[in-house]
């Protein structure tokens, strides 16, 4: 659901005690989806470290698995486009 893919099983890492609250929140707005995703990253030390170092490949592998299919390059392109 939404622009940011995040599984309901991660609701606690996203900042929600109940999966129902997580689903309701992310269904309300993209802002809520982004807040939940940021919480998810901050709850995982490897994701947090990778994003801080701009290590797109490490982030993509940790988030999507070893067959992440170019997600790292997409992240780098978007970072470069939006950080100007």
TrEMBL record:
Which Pfam family would be a valid example here?
Muramidase
Q: Pinpoint the N-acetylmuramidase domain residues.
A: 2-82
**InterPro entries associated with the record:** Muramidase
Which superkingdom is the protein from? Bacteria
Protein name as it appears in the record = N-acetylmuramidase family protein
Protein source organism: Pseudomonas denitrificans
Upper taxonomic lineage = Bacteria, Pseudomonadati, Pseudomonadota, Gammaproteobacteria, Pseudomonadales
């Amino acid at each position: 659901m939404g622009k940011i893919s995040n599984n309901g099983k991660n609701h606690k890492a996203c900042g929600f005690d109940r999966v129902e609250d997580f689903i309701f929140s992310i269904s309300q707005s993209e802002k809520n989806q982004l807040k939940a995703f940021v919480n998810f990253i901050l709850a995982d030390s490897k994701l947090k470290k990778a994003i801080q170092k701009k290590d797109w490949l490490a982030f993509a592998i940790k988030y999507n698995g070893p067959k992440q299919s170019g997600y790292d390059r997409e992240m780098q392109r978007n970072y470069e486009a939006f950080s100007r």
